[in-house]
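hiii so my PI (J.) wants the whole complex modelled not just the main chain, which honestly fair. so below is everything: two entries, each one labled with what it is. i double checked the lines twice but i was tired so who knows lol
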Amino acid sequence: DAGVTQSPTHLIKTRGQQVTLRCSPKSGHDTVSWYQQALGQGPQFIFQYYEEEERQRGNFPDRFSGHQFPNYSSELNVNALLLGDSALYLCASSFFFRGWYTEAFFGQGTRLTVV
Amino acid sequence: QKEVEQDPGPLSVPEGAIVSLNCTYSNSAFQYFMWYRQYSRKGPELLMYTYSSGNKEDGRFTAQVDKSSKYISLFIRDSQPSDSATYLCAIPTGGGNKLTFGTGTQLKVEL
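here's the output for the full assembly
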């Protein structure tokens, strides 16, 4: 079982550019959530996808958008990058069953640096 | 007031010490409480979770919830250098499985 895989591992972008991060959930999982973790902080919830729709959203601007594909994999897109977007971006997957979500498994994250 | 608050540390202890990590939360309606461990350059991994009040033990780790004071704790007995990591408390909030995390406490266990 490969677990949750994220790509790329590291990324350097310039202010104003756009970036796409990718996530493959753990086998058997159908729900993907994205988190932003700034240095020295806990992860902050960006949004969650289930059945290819955004189901919940945290307090992040519209520059942050996402997508979920039929195979449950997901992308996080960030437009008009700011220096403050530099962070570790984490993907977490779980399984939605009878109104409950199973334990969330996290990937190793993508370290984004905006210069 | 933040929904979940945690002392960021860092915390440095000698090998074999008992470690106490703590968080407070704001909403008395919260029912599930989780502890994640995050090694450097890795994603968080779930250590333990508890439901409502009381204690839960798993090997050297004990999670404790005091709902009257909205206080959650993680105790590590006989701490080892391999326990050196950041420990994050987390609570499912806002429905779904959105997790709200504390800041994380960085722990170093020294030989």
